[in-house]
Amino acid sequence: METLQQHAQDPNFWIFLCFGQSNMAGQAPIEQQDMAVSDRFLSMATTDGGDGRVIGTWRKAIPPLCRHDAGLGPADYFGRTLLDNVPENVRVGIVSVAVEGCPITFFDKDRNASLIAMEEQDWMNDILNQYGRDPYQRLLNMARLAAKDGVIKGILLHQGETDAYDIEWCQTVRKIYCDLQRELGFDSSDVPLLVGEVVRGEYGGICGHANATINRIANLYPNTFVVSSEGCMPCEDYLHFSGEGYRLLGQHYAFRFLEVVNQK
């Protein structure tokens, strides 16, 4: 059976799928220090945007990565940190789909249609509309395009503030990963799932109690790893990270990925 990965044009173009809710989309203001981006760091547009991005095309990974109306997020400094620690012939590509405030079930392809149809909040519907009201399918479609140019190397998740409080959340996360693996045809042993902690309770994080469930997932499933949010400070709402918090969290994702692949 042929897979998308077998048709990869460049094995040194590492593709990472990123999904989740508001902290993955990125909520921090973009500063001048964030605008200098390597030509080796790319982002595939998963929506059209007023800044000129065109869905399904690669662009230099100048923030915001997720959508034109998002902010600085963890994927920004994940990619930059990774490039600082891999050979110079490696490029990094981000494919990001995130819906602020969404439950994990919005990415479950077998349940999301009916749940999304019941959504009543205008602001969330505006975001969902940008993804054709099916964020899982948009992530899958963009991943298929990206895999024609490179190799899928990892999946990054940051979601949990809404519903990471029981085993069902862990099971749904695992199902989404397995759905992506089956439909994209990658070897699950080669593509780790990295799950980030939310703002910690000791920093005033109002959803910090979700980290207990988030930390369970690594013990339940193979090739699944938790990314620490230690030292990643929140902004004034104590739900989202500050700019410095996102920069550090992105570094944590990158070093966790490198730790995982270097153990193999």
Detailed description of the structure:
The protein has 264 residues and is α/β, with parallel strands linked by helices. It is 34% helix and 15% strand. It contains eight helices and seven strands. The protein has a seven-stranded mixed beta sheet, sandwiched between helices. Strand 5 (151-158), helix 6 and strand 6 (193-196) form a beta-alpha-beta unit. It is globular, with a radius of gyration of 17 Å. The model is unreliable at 1-6 (pLDDT under 50).
Structural class of the helix and strand makeup? alpha/beta
**Order of the strands making up the biggest sheet:** 3-2-4-1-5-6-7
* Low-confidence regions: 1-6
Beta-strand residue percentage: 5-15%
Report how far the terminal alpha carbons are from each other.
Answer: 25 Å
**Biggest beta-sheet profile:** 7 strands, mixed
Shape: globular
| Strand tally | 7
Approximate helicity band: 25-40%
Residue-averaged pLDDT: 96
Radius of gyration: 17 Å
Number of helices: 8
- Strand/helix succession: EHEEHEHHHEHEHEH
Spell out the key features of this protein.
single chain, alpha/beta, globular, disordered N terminus, 264 residues
